[in-house]
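We were asked to recover a plausible sequence for a given structure. The inputs and outputs are reproduced exactly as logged, with field labels preserved.

PROBLEM: sequence recovery
POSITIONS: 439
GIVEN STRUCTURE:
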């Protein structure tokens, strides 16, 4: 009998992690292969283009423990209190995770009877081995960097949503991922929509204490078959001393549509690689990104719109606001393969700098091999207009109220693109709470 212990991110810790788990051999082999790849890699260096603007020298991974089976002192009420997207929403099912462990999972019987799977990814690796083995890490590049390889080796508490062919789920599903103070989250989210399927997934990531430290080393895989339709919302509000590293990828097939809305407002440092591959003719993706930073937060998103098939459309809009001494980095790329004729690609990043010490880096890019395309990109960075502040104050508003209105107006273009009322309201409220007054 194996005793559960706290293990760190080293060879001995990984061996203990493996011994504590009762998993199919194929999954154990996948983990071992990923760990060996991670061991052979160096940590990212600042001189590498992808990390020039993100300094991880203060990050020490062995300050955190690998996921384990130890019980947590956090109760379910504290976990639920951290969420915002569920307010006023009747869901088809929900999953709660705490420190890389599933603590609850529900799905209405109506959807179970139609073949929908929604729950623990680890459990489904055994009960639906053929399905999971075919799709798990099938589109993610576990050799992208050391973070990606470690995640593939030690993910735990993962979630799966599988919607069979032709099934249309007309109620949202909800995932809540929570970290306790000093905790670790390595969850992997796998979403599979078969041909003609439709779903809405609300996923929020929170810390029990907004000021807490912790580590999130996560991954998302979204696999959409032909003519499927997904609305995916991801709200990230980790504690402000939490390190957040993630690989997020979607693959969209023929005539399928993806609307991906994300908001990043938590963590001490975030580095996310987000990519959407359009692999079938007529595939369509829209990504709406909101970043809001304060104090000394650093949030970096590197996005890729990869057009691999003809007549596809991608539309990425990121808006960021920075206050105090915080910094955002957005580096976007539209890549069009030679076969992807009739491509329509758009990307834009707008920044609103709220203090003289804040900073925004914006690097849009195009890499086009086809000759019959329409691809555009743009970026703007500006400060709050003092004339607008003066105008509002002359009408009785305080400076903080005026600033809040200007910030809300800045993000309105994103809000207008969100088709879920509860999400639009939650994001607006979250941003308004963080706006402070500046002289």
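RECOVERED SEQUENCE:
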């Amino acid at each position: 009998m194996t005793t559960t212990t706290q293990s760190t991110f080293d060879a001995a810790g990984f061996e203990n992690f493996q011994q504590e788990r009762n998993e199919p051999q194929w999954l154990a082999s996948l983990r071992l292969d990923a760990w060996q790849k991670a061991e052979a890699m160096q940590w990212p260096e600042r001189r590498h283009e992808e990390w020039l603007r993100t300094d991880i020298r203060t990050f020490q991974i062995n300050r955190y423990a690998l996921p384990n089976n130890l019980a947590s002192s956090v109760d379910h009420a504290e976990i639920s209190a951290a969420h915002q997207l569920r307010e006023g929403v009747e869901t088809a099912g929900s999953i709660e995770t705490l420190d890389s462990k599933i603590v609850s999972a529900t799905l209405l019987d109506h959807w179970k009877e139609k073949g929908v799977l929604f729950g623990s990814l680890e459990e489904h690796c055994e009960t639906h081995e053929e399905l999971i083995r075919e799709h798990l890490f099938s589109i993610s590049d576990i050799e992208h960097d050391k973070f990606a390889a470690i995640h593939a080796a030690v993910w735990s508490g993962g979630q799966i949503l599988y919607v069979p062919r032709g099934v249309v789920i007309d109620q949202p599903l909800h995932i809540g991922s929570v970290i306790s103070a000093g905790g670790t989250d390595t969850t992997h989210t796998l979403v599979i929509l078969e041909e003609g399927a439709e779903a809405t997934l609300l996923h929020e990531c929170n810390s029990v204490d907004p000021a807490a430290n912790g580590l999130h080393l996560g991954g998302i895989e979204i696999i959409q078959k032909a003519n499927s339709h997904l609305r995916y919302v991801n709200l990230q509000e980790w504690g402000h001393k939490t390190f957040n590293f993630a690989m997020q990828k979607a693959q969209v097939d023929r005539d399928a549509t993806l609307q991906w809305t994300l908001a990043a407002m938590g963590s001490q440092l975030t580095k996310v690689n987000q990519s959407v591959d359009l692999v079938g003719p007529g595939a369509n993706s829209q990504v709406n990104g909101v970043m809001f930073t304060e104090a000394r937060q650093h949030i970096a998103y590197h996005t890729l719109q990869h057009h691999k098939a003809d007549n596809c459309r991608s539309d990425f809009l990121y808006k960021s606001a920075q206050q105090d001494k915080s910094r955002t980095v957005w580096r976007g790329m539209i890549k069009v393969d030679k076969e992807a004729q009739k491509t329509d690609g758009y990307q834009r990043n707008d920044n609103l700098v709220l203090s003289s010490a804040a900073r925004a880096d914006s690097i849009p890019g195009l890499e086009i091999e086809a000759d019959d395309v329409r691809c555009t990109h743009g970026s703007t960075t500006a400060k709050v207009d003092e004339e607008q502040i003066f105008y509002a104050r002359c009408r009785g508003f305080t400076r903080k109220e005026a600033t809040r209105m200007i910030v809300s107006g800045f993000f309105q273009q994103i809000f207008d693109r969100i088709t879920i009322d509860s999400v639009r309201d939650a994001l607006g409220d979250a941003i308004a709470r963080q706006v402070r007054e500046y002289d």
